[in-house]
Amino acid sequence: MRIVAGLHRGRRLAAPDGQATRPTGERMRQALFDMLWHAPYAGREAIEGQAVLDAFAGTGALGLEALSRGAAGVSFIEQDRAALAALHANIAALKAEPACTVLAADATRPPRARAPCRLVFLDPPYAKDLVPRALAALAGAGWIAPGALVCAEVGRAEVLEAPGFAVLAEREHGAARVVVMRAG
After folding, report:
1. Whether residue 54 has pLDDT greater than 80
2. pTM score, two decimals?
3. Which PANTHER family match (predicted)?
4. Which of 60, 132, 178, 184 pairs with 125 at a CA distance of 20 to 30 A?
């Protein structure tokens, strides 16, 4: 697994052994970032210079891709120990420590944010209805700025209800579906 584009293009990312962590693949990340880059509701300014949150971060692939493409900084929320080890290794390999904050926490019970983020990625385990719970908790803890873009990866057949968030686009990729929303 590699960073797809930007400053760190082609750099490998570590992933923990086993099936507990399901990193967002290169094709899915490329499709998502292309969608954001060219969408009338987003554009380059949706990524470049923005504070980003990568919740259920796993290896950090989404947040590190955003950083490679010009995000100002990324906060990662992850609770699995093996995933946290891979995340720290990936940040160190990119020498991105100054732009990254890693929080060993549950995204459905996050700590208070220091500042809200304009771009939010959620990639939880599928079929556990975690996206709505995380959105409510993250918004309540000050992580999601008004008008922020939220990109959630869910199982293809999963029903996603997110009160207070307007769906802007959806794309299916294999067993996954990416839903892009705007915070109200």
Report:
1. yes
2. 0.93
3. METHYLTRANSFERASE
4. 184
